[in-house]
Amino acid sequence: DGETAPPAQAFLWLDGKIVGEDLPGVSARDLNDGGYFVLIPPTPLPTDTADPDAELPSNPELPPRLMVGYSDIDGDGLPDDWELFHFQSPVDGDRDADSDGDGLLNWEEFLLGTDPHSADSDGDKILDGFEANFGSDPLSDGGYSLDFDHDWIPDSWEAESGLDDPKGDPDNDGVSNLRESQWGTDPFDRDSDDDGVIDGVELMDGTSPLDPASFRQYQISFQLRPDQEATKPFWFLNTIAEPLGYWVEIVETTAGSDGGAPDWLAVSPELGSIPRRTSRKFTFTASSAGREGSFSAVVMIRDSEAADGILRKVNVTLEVNPGPVTHLTAPASSDGPFAVAQVIDLTAEATMADGSPVPEIEFYADGAYIGESHENPATISYRLPGPIDRAIRFTALSYDSTGFAGKMSGNKGTGQLLKKCLHSGSDSPSCHSHEKSPVDSRRRRRVLPLHVASGG
Q1: Cβ 165 vs Cβ 179: under 8 Å
Q2: Inside any domain, residue 243
Q3: What is the pLDDT of residues 258-299, one digit of tens each?
């Protein structure tokens, strides 16, 4: 900036080595004009770099990056999506190559989040490899601090926190001290942004542990008919603690509800612990018994070690759809005689709660298929097969686009039974038993015992 005193020492960085001799009295401006020089602050150098020709120290044993559920088809430790992004192929990223000549191998670039094709990811004219080995941030042009113990954690962070083990995790949030120092999260607080989701879960989910508005919410939806029950699985992989204790809280969010636990949703197991690197299956069970309409709730799988810690937040919705409702109109009972060939006109009308069309209405007499219509309302004429001395049970079924049979007449219609004794011409009725027509085998599976119309 033209005002800062020149450093005590300056070195030239070339091909992964420090070369040249001490250059006292040379200003920073002059050094940076060429864009190839690196300034060393006036602090003691590590003993292993006092030799100008020495290789910069390296850290081959890096703490593992927190990764859950990624694909790695070539087994090189680099996630396929990372290789696709940087190398356009999941098998072309050589993990031990230094693609940009900055002193960092590709697998080190992945762990640090730097660009494997840019020797200076943050554009501060300091090579990524130099910054990484001396405790600077290769993703920020705000300068660097030294790291004399070469553990990739800046000495200033270690002095402030009192922590010096890069693999340590004092708050047991699944984030190592190294990652805490890189992210700027609090190594003593499991939930640095106080959004209810612990830091390790946020990093696993790809959300920010420093933004209270950034956390992943999951969704499970149920679509049921009346008086049905269904289950859906939900999995959680523990990459955080050994073991990880949890308990389940369910809060209803349906409009007008009191915010208590819903009686239509259950989750099991309700509490327990999960060993590290082990998945736990949770079963969500929803019931539509006695319900119709839309319902919602939020399920929180909570961390037993933190009063407000959340491992997973799952929004659950339930839609109860009764399907089409069929109204059947049949002739009323009569005491008068009927001819054997009596024709009875049947009319049915089906409606859907959401106003969508009903594609088909079928008619049955004593459970036997007698006709169908794709009109709505639908009308058919049914000819009696012969003298009958008992009731005839007429029903109608409607089907929505999913093939679900709607309610028959009686619940919401005027369907009736016909009990006729058909006269053969004599003064006294001559009634004979009537054998039911066999149900068409193609339709047998679609005749549902949902309702039987009341007798007339």
Answers
A1: no
A2: yes
A3: 989 999 999 999 999 999 889 999 999 999 988 888 999 999
CB atoms within 10 A of CB 155: 15
**CATH code, domain carrying 438:** 2.60.40.10
In degrees rounded to 5, what are phi and psi of residue 86? -95, -25
Q: Which residues contact 243 (CB under 8 A, 6 or more apart)?
A: 273, 274, 275, 276
User: How are beta strands 310-320 and 218-224 bridged, if at all?
Assistant: parallel
Task: For residue 273, give both structure tokens.
Answer: 């612990």
- Residue 441: CB partners within 8 Å, gap ≥ 6? none
Task: Supply the pTM of this predicted model.
Answer: 0.42
Contacts of 201 (CB under 8 A, 6+ apart): 174, 240, 310, 311, 312
Over the range 355-377, which residues count as b (16 or more CB within 10 Å of their CB) and which as e? Answer: eeebebbbbbbbebbbebbeebe
Tokens at 451, concatenated: 């309702």
For residue 39, the number of C-alpha atoms closer than 13 Å in the C-beta half-sphere is: 23
In the chain, the number of structural domains is 2
Residue 314 sits in which domain range? Answer: 218-320
CA angle 54, 111, 273 (to 5 degrees): 135
Determine, yes or no, domain membership for 141: no
- Whether 79 contacts 95, CB under 8 Å: no
Q: How many residues does the chain have?
A: 456
Is a pLDDT exceeding 60 seen at residue 164? yes
The beta strand positions in 45-100, using DSSP E, are none
Distance between CA atoms of residues 187 and 176, nearest Å: 8
Residue 302 sits in the same domain as residue 337: no
- Give the Å distances, CA to CA, from 16 to 58, 127, 178, 340: 11, 9, 24, 105
One domain for residues 276 and 335: no
Assess contact for 5 and 26: CB atoms under 8 A.
no
Instruction: Say if residues 102 and 133 touch (Cβ distance below 8 Å).
Output: no
Contact 409, 393 (CB under 8 A): no
Pairing of strands 37-40, 218-224: unpaired
- Give the type of residue at 18: I
Element holding 28 (H helix, E strand): helix 28-33
My answer on whether 316 and 372 are in the same domain is no
Q: Which of 301, 320, 339 is a domain's end point?
A: 320
pLDDT at position 44:
43
Does 56 fall in a domain? no
